[in-house]
Write the structure tokens for this entry.
Amino acid sequence: MILNITWNGVSADTDVNMDYRVSDPDVKRIAVELMRSGGVPGLHFRHLASDAFEHYVVDRFDTPEGGQRLFLRPKVPFGGAAGGAVDDARGVAIAGAIGTGR
């Protein structure tokens, strides 16, 4: 099964061997470990916070070919924080970052 993770505006697929019905908290925990270990091409963050995906949602889709896909994405569109900059380590908005020259 494919797990697609969107992090800080970047989206990447990785093949995972897990049950499609795995709980959302388990998907988020597995995604953190995959990203820490370099298991997601282009998304390697060794010091990613354990709660980095706290405000993310898990979408589940059946593919036309009969497969299954999981998508772990922010609740807001395009993988960024609503109206602000994103802290790489946690994926949360930095208060007051817009227009402050940061």
In short: Residues 2-79 form one domain. The beta strands are 2-7, 10-15, 56-62, 68-74.
